[in-house]
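Recap quiz, item 2
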Amino acid sequence: MAGRASEKQIEVVLAIETNFVIGYVWEGVTILEHIWNLCQQFRIEVVIPEIALSEARSSLMKRIDRQVEAIRQFRFWLNDIARAAGMKEQVRQIKQCLDGIETELQRRKQLILKALEMFAQACTVVPLTPQVWARAYVRWKANMPPFKELDCLVAETLLEFLRRRRAKLSLFLTMDAEDFDHPEIHEAFRQRKALMLFDPYDVVVEFRKFYGVA
Amino acid sequence: MPKPKYAKRGSSNSQRKLTENQRRLLLATPETVTERDPITRKIRELLSVFPLELRRRWAEEWREEHRRSK
């Protein structure tokens, strides 16, 4: 991406996951917008696992597809009404409206994809490698925290990234304390000199401390 | 000239040169920041067709699904 800081310039890394994408891109949560803004201003590297991005994308696409599917079901019933009740003309008009709605839904789907793409281009997207996948699978199968399959993939992807990449300050923000707030995960991130945080305001506090304005 | 035995007081953090704008932004409370960066502006523009209520509902639905996932 043009304007992204080179590796040499990066002092701070902020790792995020699905809930940041949903909160910032989709919901427009103020504190997350603020953190994003700070990352842009201070050339902080925002790191996201590919699997987290894909989870956010599929979650939103699924909801649009659900509406498109409802329209298709509706058309099916309308065909039945047209035949049985002899209301061909009325049904034709309704179908015309439905066509318009479906076209609009497809357009909105593209808008979401474009917004997510724009976000992804400004981040470092960490790919899911077979090695990471295997480690995550073992973690999940062994019933180790964060327990859930997707969360294991997120955790292992970030741990692998942070093993290779050392910044002066590395933070991992997840608002999912329920799944991630376990001593084993804290320790794994600590070993990679990274701090796991659950409250976005704490990220701002860490940034302030790092830049010496606390 | 020999090196001083002890480093000067103050961490390297305090030596980071910040612009006035960066300093102001860092100290601001999120709710009072009115200017958005170009990416946020563009994203908000793209998604403006979706009502806030719908965006919140879908986000909550996702959270609930994630909570129930294994």
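Chain A has a mean pLDDT of 94.
Residues 50-85 of chain A form the longest helix (36 residues).
End of item.
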